[in-house]
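hiii so um. not sure if this is the right channel but i have a protein structure encoded as tokens and i wanna go backwards to a sequence. like what aa goes where. can anyone help
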């Protein structure tokens, strides 16, 4: 008796033992034969990020799963162009710190352990005047850029020096770390903001300009 013929695959060209999923094609030229696997299922487009694309609606359920992120900024006072002018913290160069999340978090935790805390330092005499206003404007600007998030002061460090001639201490630069987190009152979907898309890495901030 001749041996029985080998089993045929479910669809021509399919591997034996592997089930081919039926796929629907959107465009078939007129008169062209329909693919043998044409049938019952449309291929879904790849999922976009949690926030969607620019100008698209975002899913608040996915948004709530986003982890807190940290952003670091360095502020340096700009020297005046004329000798008779006095440098103030009203005009600074703000630079985004090129640090990763683990490095920024380590800086935040170190300050919590050793103190003073960021808010204690923020309320101190050393941060009075334009230095404090620069931090306030930074937080306000980040919240306006993407209202889906809140931004809190997580870290603050002053680079200080001693002025022996005057017998006082001064600040040459200071670093600010913000914690970005989802707003708790965010309950409905809306258009996605620009977030960090157009945030310059380095810019001049003039509170009096």
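sure thing!! here u go:
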């Amino acid at each position: 008796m001749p041996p029985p013929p080998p089993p045929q695959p479910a669809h021509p060209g399919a591997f034996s033992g592997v089930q081919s999923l039926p796929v629907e094609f959107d465009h078939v030229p007129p008169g062209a034969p329909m693919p043998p696997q044409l049938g019952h299922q449309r291929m879904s487009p790849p999922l976009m990020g949690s926030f969607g694309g620019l100008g698209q609606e975002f899913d608040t359920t996915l948004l709530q799963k986003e982890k807190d992120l940290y952003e670091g900024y360095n502020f340096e006072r700009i020297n005046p162009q004329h000798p008779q002018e006095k440098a103030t913290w009203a005009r600074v160069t703000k630079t985004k710190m090129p640090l990763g999340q683990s490095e920024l978090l380590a800086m935040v935790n170190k300050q919590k352990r050793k103190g003073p805390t960021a808010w204690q330092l923020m309320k101190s005499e050393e941060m009075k005047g334009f230095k404090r206003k620069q931090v306030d404007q930074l937080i306000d600007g980040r919240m306006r850029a993407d209202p889906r998030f809140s931004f809190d002061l997580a870290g603050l460090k002053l680079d200080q020096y001693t002025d022996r001639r005057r017998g006082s201490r001064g600040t040459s630069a200071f670093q600010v770390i913000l914690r970005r987190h989802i707003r708790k009152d965010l309950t409905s979907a809306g258009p996605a903001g620009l977030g960090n898309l157009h945030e310059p890495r380095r810019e001049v901030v003039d509170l009096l300009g």
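oh and The mean pLDDT is 75.
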